[in-house]
């Protein structure tokens, strides 16, 4: 019983809420041919469908509520008779009577939703304070405003980024990148007013008319001093994609595509990689550009980002960097195994080359050298003689070489003759290399044959073995 009383109390409270509180969720939009964000046919969303407003009793006060609600500043005109074309579907409101200070249309006096005898030929519309950009695109160009049913420009006296910021926000074009002056966007055709001069905004205003200015039409400017803006929406943040996605195999070909929304025409796309200073540029007449990376390796790994660059009124502007994508390179197992096998084979070949080189040098070291004696005084004796009876002879190295050569040749000729034996001396036959050949040993005393040596010292000698 107690819970039932609480339920009835809640229902009673909800029924006593103001109409505006129940309808704060009503959405408003401006539509129709020639409509902009701040001008067009007024439509509201109710019961899951969009519908129009009948122009019976439609006034400037009603349009004022719409313009304020949309953040479009001052009301210029409350249009009637389907100026922005006929709508479709329901006509939700009729006989709307606003004071102009209400927050929502639902706060104004009106008939029940959907009760009317109107047709869409009487659809209501609004023209709020209009600002648009010409000689550029939707978000860059010369600034013109709508006043007294005609368009006019703004003089660039004291025009700066704070003023441009108000325009860009009003047009829903992001932030201001440049406040242009003079004829950057050309001069208007025909006669056109210059409505504002010496505009001084703080940057937080919703409309230029809320900023300080000299008054509508009060100026001594010419169109050579028309003000303009470049907003960030003219340089959209590009998107980036990689194919194959993210992880690729060593040696593959990779494509990285940078793109912007279809409403923008392409100019220059820039691809950057971090870490490092990698930077590539690609011009494009469409809204995208593709960068090719052939035969990737580990040097291509990193984070890639795109940037969009555009020439606006003879000045280059760059967009924000895209979100990064990572490119990682892996080595397939088959390639890794083949690399290991190839490396092992190369190592074996290297070891073999080193081994053969050492063997070759060792073989050369074992080859006998030619017997060469310098100009020395040599004394030779038979090793088998009694040491007490030394017999000496002096001979020149050239002579001994000659004698040795003759003796070797003579003995070689008698290679197969039986050797003779003497009690005191043993002579071995010297023959071809396949015979059992022994060496003949002598002892020699060698003295340097120098000019400063006058006497021979009989005890100054060394024993040497001369292989014959």
TrEMBL record:
GO molecular function terms attached to this record: serine-type endopeptidase activity
Gene3D superfamilies, sorted: Immunoglobulins (2.60.40.10), SRCR-like domain (3.10.250.10)
All residue ranges annotated as the SRCR domain in the record: 28-129, 131-232
Signal peptide (from-to): 1-21
Top-level taxon: Eukaryota
GO cellular component, one term: extracellular space
UniProt domain Ig-like: residue ranges: 238-322
Intrachain disulfide bonds: 54-118, 67-128, 98-108, 201-211
Keywords per UniProt: Disulfide bond, Glycoprotein, Immunoglobulin domain, Membrane, Repeat, Secreted, Signal, Transmembrane, Transmembrane helix
Spans through the membrane: 333-356
Any single GO BP term: zymogen activation
SUPFAM superfamilies: Immunoglobulin (SSF48726), SRCR-like (SSF56487)
Listed Pfam families: Ig_3 (PF13927), SRCR (PF00530)
Localization in the cell: Secreted
Protein's name according to its UniProt entry: Deleted in malignant brain tumors 1 protein-like
